[in-house]
């Protein structure tokens, strides 16, 4: 029997089951239609007290209006087929999602949205005195299509009616120690389980700096050493995020500073060039003067008269020529530097790490220098002057690019 035949072969066709503390969630197809069901564990169906707890949760479930709640009703129509009928939708556990599609963690915003929504929904449950207690990756779901995080049944409805060691067999790692010991559960119990879930999540995804300290505090064995509430946990994440922004801005500044220093040493005139510049500035007008260009006659036996020097008009024309050449160079180099610098000042490089940014910086510097030398030659201005103008332009562009950076820039 192939997969299609399995899916549509009748009432007994079951595919893709998900084990949870209360039972097995699966999607059943019959007459071309699908429905979500939960076959309840024997510890519930075989105990009147547990069935009463389940009926109570079903009544409460109808009034939980948050979009992250999976709704269900109890079906008791069959003598030996007590089960839950679950709302429409295609649900998959986070554990299975990450096993089947590990690349999902790289999708923009996936991890942050999952974490934020899970924390917000848990706070919502706490406002109704409900505690989930088991944030195992097998017991946290996402809806296919939009990856909206979803929760099914909540442990606080059952914890006083059955031994946690029986109810949470196989999930012990994600249950707070006081719950496993049969003590009272509260918000700190969920804080512990959330911390364990985040530890699992960031073992698959890259663990951001923001959550390290938060997770360590959340998973303390002693409840008093944890966060008192999910809201406190969220507040600490926000504070860590602010510290991260400061850290990232420092890293950006460091990366850009190294980049500018590299340009400075390449574009500023060398010591030899400076000596040459001073030598030219100390040269007498007679050395620069070309007598043929300004006078048809030259008497070497007489002292040169005032007409032998470059005229004021000629000096003015030379100045205008130099200014025009510099304008041409500045305009062309600004356009070229913008193009070159855009190769590293973009979301791909500025959203990566400092190592990657600096690795791309050296070839960028080389390209900027090459462009400066080529355009200086074409514009007929001195190498020294072109270096100074190029440095000014690069600093201007860099400052503008820094202001355009996203919140999450270069990272360590």
TrEMBL record:
It holds the Pfam family Pkinase. Keywords: Membrane, Transmembrane, Transmembrane helix. This is Protein kinase domain-containing protein. Residues 288-307 are annotated as: Disordered. Signal peptide: none annotated. Gene3D superfamilies: Transferase(Phosphotransferase) domain 1 (1.10.510.10). InterPro entries: Kinase-like_dom_sf (IPR011009), Prot_kinase_dom (IPR000719). The keyword Ligase does not apply. It comes from Xylanibacter rodentium. Residues 1-318 form the Protein kinase domain. The chain crosses the membrane at residues 246-267. Residues 296-305 have a biased composition (Acidic residues).
